[in-house]
Amino acid sequence: MSSNNMHPPRALAWIVRLALLIAVVAIAYLALAPVDLGGRGGNVDHAIAFVTLGFLSRLAFPRWYMIVLLALLALFGGAIEVLQGTMHAGRDMQMVDFKIDVAAALVGLVVGALVNRMLGGWRAGD
Q1: CA 20 to 30 Å from 10, out of 39, 44, 49, 91?
Q2: pLDDT at position 8, please?
């Protein structure tokens, strides 16, 4: 590895991917937990969750096209909303939540891309 081509060790790439997996599981649990078990929801919570997912996704998979990552995150957000509307856990399917999820994911992806660029364009797994 040359000094001009600084890449983080593979362990760091796997740490970022593990953080993404933990975030996905935690967000899915919190989004689908019955309201009386502490799940709150709310626009700010949606924004924080999906900015985090977008950011970690971009760092975990920097070689993937951003539109692919955004589509996957939108699919995840949409699936959560559909499940909330069908699980009868005191939650509702709301289009505004889905829109916030997608917009926040895009913000997270852009911030992740900027951080990736500041780090010299590191590639997870290199």
Answers
A1: 49
A2: 54
**Calpha distance 24→7 (Å, rounded):** 26
Domains in the chain: boundaries? 10-118
With b for 16 or more beta-carbon neighbours within 10 A and e for fewer, the 4-15 pattern comes to: eeebbeeeebee
Whole-number pLDDT of residue 53 = 98
Q: Which pLDDT tens digit goes with each residue over 6-64?
A: 455 677 888 999 999 999 999 999 888 887 655 556 788 899 999 999 999 999 998 89
Beta carbons of 14 and 4 less than 8 angstroms apart: no
Short-list 63, 70, 64, 68, CA closest to 109 = 70
> pTM score, two decimals?
0.83
- 58 contact partners, CB below 8 Å, separation of at least 6: 66, 69, 108, 109, 111, 112, 113, 115, 116
- Tell me the C-alpha distance between 35 and 39, whole Å: 5
